[in-house]
């Protein structure tokens, strides 16, 4: 893992509703992931290549958690569609499909790789999580915990703008 590669588009902020993915994160890997719809994946800047990234995530304006995200085709599973799979480093009581997931991608961990076994894949993901935890404990990473992206209520801001537009008509 190098984690030192610079990506011009980082930090990258995005949000979208969580959709059902392949169903492997929790069941096969023991590492649940939240998946974005294709429309969010298609909006990624071109310099955010396939690989593993770290940052912070928030569900429905709640608490902010450390996260790792796999972006790409997951060669171990031979996916045909590019995906963004977010693992929030927290134990949740239930799934949060159809809820809004807001993330800031801060840094790059490694390129997308293929693995010889499920055990190798799980071991790599566990290493990614540990690396992300360390990087997200750095002061320059923690500054994103207070970013306007997380502290402003996105859906209310949209509604207020619409209300203001209506009142000016």
Describe it.
There is one protein chain. The chain has a 6-stranded antiparallel beta sheet with strand order 1-6-3-4-5-2. Strand 3 and strand 4 form a beta hairpin. The longest helix is centred in the last third of the chain and has 19 residues, at 118-136. With 169 residues, the chain is of the alpha+beta class. It has helices at residues 25-29, 38-42, 118-136, 139-142, 148-151, 154-167; strands at residues 12-17, 34-35, 51-59, 64-72, 83-88, 100-111. The protein has one domain: Beta Barrel (Elongation Factor Tu (Ef-tu), domain 3), CATH 2.40.30.
Strand order in the largest sheet: 1-6-3-4-5-2
Biggest beta sheet summary: 6 strands, antiparallel
The N- to C-terminal Cα distance equals 55 Å
| CATH homologous superfamily designation | Riboflavin kinase-like
CATH classification class: Mainly Beta
Indicate the mean pLDDT: 85
Characteristic key phrases:
30% helix, six-stranded antiparallel beta sheet, 6 helices, 169 residues, alpha+beta, disordered C terminus, Elongation Factor Tu (Ef-tu), domain 3, single chain
Annotate the secondary structure layout:
Layout lengths: L11 E6 L7 H5 L4 E2 L2 H5 L8 E9 L4 E9 L10 E6 L11 E12 L6 H19 L2 H4 L5 H4 L2 H14 L2
Antiparallel strand pairs: 1-6, 2-5, 3-4, 3-6, 4-5
What would you say about this model in short?
The protein is an alpha+beta fold. The chain has a single domain, classed as Elongation Factor Tu (Ef-tu), domain 3, CATH 2.40.30. The protein has 6 helices and 6 strands, in the order βαβαββββαααα.
């Amino acid at each position: 893992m190098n984690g030192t590669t610079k990506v011009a588009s980082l930090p990258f902020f995005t949000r979208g509703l969580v959709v059902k993915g392949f169903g492997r994160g929790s069941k096969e890997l023991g590492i649940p992931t939240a998946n974005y719809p294709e429309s969010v994946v298609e909006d990624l800047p071109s310099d955010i290549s396939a690989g593993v990234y770290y940052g912070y995530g928030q569900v429905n304006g709640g608490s902010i958690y450390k996260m790792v995200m796999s972006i790409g085709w997951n060669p171990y599973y031979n996916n045909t569609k590019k995906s963004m799979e977010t693992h929030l480093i927290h134990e949740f009581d239930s799934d949060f499909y159809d809820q809004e997931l807001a993330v800031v991608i801060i840094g790059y961990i490694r390129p997308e790789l293929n693995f010889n076994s499920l055990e190798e894949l799980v071991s790599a993901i566990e290493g990614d999580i540990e690396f992300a935890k360390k990087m997200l404990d750095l002061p320059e990473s923690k500054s994103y915990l207070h970013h306007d992206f997380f502290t402003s209520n996105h859906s209310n801001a949209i509604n207020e703008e619409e209300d203001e537009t209506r009142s000016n008509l």
